[in-house]
Amino acid sequence: MPLPDTISKVFELARQDGKGDESSFYGPYNVLLNYLFPFEEEYVVVPQYKRHAELKSVHFMTIFLVKHKHHPVFFVEVKYSATLCYISGRKEADLEMRERFGRLFEDVEIETLYGASAMGTKLCLYTLDMASRRLEPNAIPRNPEFGNDTAPADRWNVDIMTPEGEERLREVVRDIKEMLGQL
Q: Which of 19-23, 80-84, 88-92, 110-114 has the highest mean pLDDT?
């Protein structure tokens, strides 16, 4: 079942405006997550605005944290579309995602915590297996001798505006709800 037209339309408008402004995507992701994780099923979507601790600038990262009965089940960190073109932007996004998993770890009740790094409508999906503590995709170590890419662009391979990308996101949501049903 495809997303409602209203959700597709707000993402299309954001895609036009959001090449250099991630805030264009805040509303669409908030609407999408509230649609996929309805309040009536005891989900709450919590926008979080965090300042980078190591940066002296006034740059904030925006995360949408989905909770079920006060426990994290999914989160999305939103960046603007053009971030995907820059090794430094992808590296920063990957590091932020890994840090966020570490911060949420103690509060997770389900077997697998999912997270998504969103650059426009393209997602890199992450999973943390709570039993093994394995986080995927695997981290690519920085090579101090060469300028290697620690977060390749092809990891952002789920475009939620395509039928395949939408279905992949729905698979994640179904898996989360199935895990919650087993608690």
A: 110-114
